[in-house]
Amino acid sequence: MKRNLFVTVLLCLGLLMGCQSNVERYGEPLIFTTGTTTGVFYSLGAGLSTLWTKEMEQLVASQASNGSVENLNLMSKGEANLAFTTVNIAYDAYNGEGSFKGKQYDGVRILGNLYPNVSHIVVVDNEDIQSIEDLKGKSFVFGAAGSSTELESKLVLEAHGVSIDDVNANYVGFTEATDLIRNGQVDGVNIYSGVPAAATTELISTIDSKVLSFSPDAIDQLVKEYPWNFKYVIEANTYDKQPEPITTVGQYSTIVIDESVSEDAAYRLTKLLWENVDELKESYSIANQFDPQKAIEGTAGVPLHPGAEKYYKEIGVLE
After folding, report:
1. Alpha-carbon gap, residue 243 to 236, rounded angstroms
2. pTM assigned to the model
3. Most buried of 52, 127, 168, 213 (most Cβ within 10 A)?
4. Contact at 8 Å (CB) between 209 and 181?
């Protein structure tokens, strides 16, 4: 039944898109841009869109994309109302920095943070690579071009004294990256995902590989200089052949919404998200990390939508 509803959503979206050159920004449907078809954002977005459409009696249509940067660009142009992103991209858009220099999008608002995205620097297990600094002169996958993974990977390597010119850089998504490292074409990759990361689990279980810890100095730099980052410890034995904890950094994956979506609609979207987490857990393991008590942590100064703020006050997360 859920599948039929999702298909209906997509068919309706196709008809609407075909009948007009621009999506209606604040009417129906609400357009929710997600991520690439192989990523968590895409499948989770489909499930959330189905849930929202059913419960709100308003069409919320999920749409695949190239990820966080494209999502915010689409929202800023009025071609989407909601999007998945990471806090660093929302921060850049709101402040007109990074990819959004000269095209500030200060109308972006937070609906709620969902789970930590954590850097897993996975490398082939050999004597040449014992630390992130050892990636100099090696081949490394930064992530898909324009993704938050790409941007965070550059910061991580730079914090360890490795510039983009020091490595043979590759720009592909997780699926392609795992194939490249498995085929011996690259030496390392940043799997920037929730914990446990399926791509990391697959790599470690199929080839001799390992996840590297960050240096203490690099962690200090990444946390102090970039307000979306926080220290994150991957517990021992999270992955095969990982007897020791791994120290890294993370930031939240979040849902953002345009400021001009009505307060009532934003409130209902927020309420339905958090009141149906148990249902989401049945289909999406990442939902086990969802916690409304942490929904407004680490937002790096990007404002909440008033509708979301109303809900968080109701449940005591905000005073």
Report:
1. 5
2. 0.80
3. 52
4. yes
Contact 27, 61 (CB under 8 A): no
Instruction: Give every CB contact of residue 102 below 8 A, 6+ residues apart in sequence.
Output: 96
Give the C-alpha distances (Å, rounded to integers) separating 195 from 34, 198, 199, 252, 255. Answer: 19, 8, 10, 12, 18
Calpha distance 283→278 (Å, rounded): 10
Instruction: Provide the phi-psi class of 301: left if phi over 0, else alpha when psi is between -120 and 50, else beta.
Output: left
Per-residue pLDDT at 13: 45
Distance CA 177, CA 231 (A): 25
SS3 state at 83: strand
Q: Which residues pair with 250 in a beta bridge?
A: 118, 230
Contact 258, 30 (CB under 8 A): no
C-beta atoms surrounding 78 within 10 Å: 16
Q: Which two tokens stand for residue 113?
A: 């943070």
Comparing 78-82, 121-125, 192-196, 295-299, the range with the smallest average pLDDT is 192-196
Q: What is the pLDDT of residues 158-204, one digit of tens each?
A: 999 999 999 999 999 888 998 999 999 999 999 998 888 888 999 99
Q: How far apart are CA 67 and CA 247, in angstroms?
A: 26
Give the helix, strand, coil percentages of the chain, each rounded to 5: 45, 20, 35
Q: What is the spatial distance between Cα 224 and Cα 217, in angstroms, rounded to a whole number?
A: 11
| Total residues found in the chain within this entry | 319
Contact 180, 172 (CB under 8 A): yes
Domains of the chain: 2-114+254-314 (3.40.190.10), 117-251 (3.40.190.10)
- Please give the Cα distance from 106 to 92 (Å, whole number): 10
- End-to-end CA separation in angstroms for the chain: 39
Distance CA 28, CA 59 (A): 6
Phi/psi for 72 (5° steps) reads -70, -35
